[in-house]
Every structure is written in C-alpha cells, then in structure tokens.
Design brief:
The chain is of the alpha+beta class. Helix content is 34%, strand content 17%. The chain has a five-stranded antiparallel beta sheet. Strands 1-6 form a two-stranded antiparallel sheet. A hairpin with a 4-residue loop joins strand 3 and strand 4.
C-alpha cells in the first residue's frame, strides 16, 4: 500500500521571502532592461516595467478608492482592497492620489470603466519594489502585495469596487443634524 504523507515537510513549505523573490523575477520579465530595473528597485524603490505582455494596470483615482473604502486611512484602505479584490495586487502612488491594480494583459480589450484608465500595451509603468509593502508618506508601495507570481486582480470585482466608489462620491453629502435644531 502506497501512502502519501499528509503533513508537509520543510521542503514543501514556501517562505514569504521565496514567494517575494518569485514575484520579483516574474515582474522583472516585463522590464525593458532587467539589470537596470533591478538596480532602480534597489536604489530608487521603483522601476519601469512594460505593460502588455504579462499584465497591465488599471489606474484608479484615489478619491474613488477612498470613497469605496469609506476612509482614506492607508491601513484601512489596504485591508478593504485586499478583501474586495480577493488579494489581487494593487499599489498606491502619487501620495495616495492614484492606485494601480494589476490585471491580465487582455483587460485592454474590454476595460471601459468611466473614471479609470487601462494602460495600453507597451506603456511603461513605474512599479514599486516588491519589498515596499508599508505605507510611508510620499513613497509608492504595494497596498495589496502580489502574493505569488502571476496573481492579478479579476476585472469584475475591480469594476464593482470602482462603481461603488463613484456612486459614493456622487451621493449628496448630508450635514450632521445637531440635537434641538429641528422644529
């Protein structure tokens, strides 16, 4: 009788560092110059990667993301995005004024969501180093890090989140009513 062990051994376990290295290598395949991109990540914290082959990105204004999340607190926004996008990778840039959700390259054909931009094939995108996963003012970072190579956001939940954020932005803001002011 041949049995397979049910408990994983140390050889079966992939560490976070190994996954981050695999993600880094996968992303670097989109670099016009891998050596330069690796150096830029080490020195600048950001490298230019080409959209279209492995992935593209949807640029979403921070106001839409913050409205959908109901907050502009980075940690709460990050948790919201991780939940509604099922862990799909997103990074924040421009002082949280823009979020970039990585999606499959085929999204270019079908994405037509008002208020966002799907970056075209060949577009160079400044992508933060995979090690930048904590908010620091003015520094681009992975709001939702890519957990394993090739993981990208699904278009439907991303479109739903954008629509929800736009709807919340469009809703009339009500002033709080103070007790005793209504007659």
């Amino acid at each position: 009788m041949n049995s397979t062990p049910t408990n994983p051994t140390a050889a079966d376990v992939t560490t976070g560092a190994e996954r981050a290295l695999a993600v880094e290598h996968w992303l670097l395949l989109a670099a016009p110059d891998v050596t330069k991109a690796r150096q830029e990540w080490e020195t600048l914290g950001m490298a230019l990667l080409r959209c279209g082959g492995r992935f593209t990105a949807i640029c979403i204004p921070g106001a839409i993301v913050h409205a959908a999340a109901g907050t502009d607190a980075p940690a709460r926004v990050d948790a919201f995005l991780a939940e509604v996008l099922d862990g799909g990778p997103v990074f924040a840039a421009a002082g949280l004024d823009r979020y970039y959700a990585l999606v499959g390259a085929s999204a270019v054909r079908d994405w037509d969501i008002f208020g966002t931009e799907c970056l075209p094939c060949g577009c160079l995108l400044g992508v933060p180093a995979v090690s930048l996963t904590e908010y620091e003012p003015g520094v681009p970072y992975w709001s939702v890090p890519m957990d394993s190579l090739g993981d990208v956001c699904l278009a439907a939940p991303l479109a739903d989140m954008v629509a929800y954020g736009r709807d919340r932005l469009a809703a009339p803001q009500r002033e709080p009513i103070e007790r005793g002011t209504i007659s």
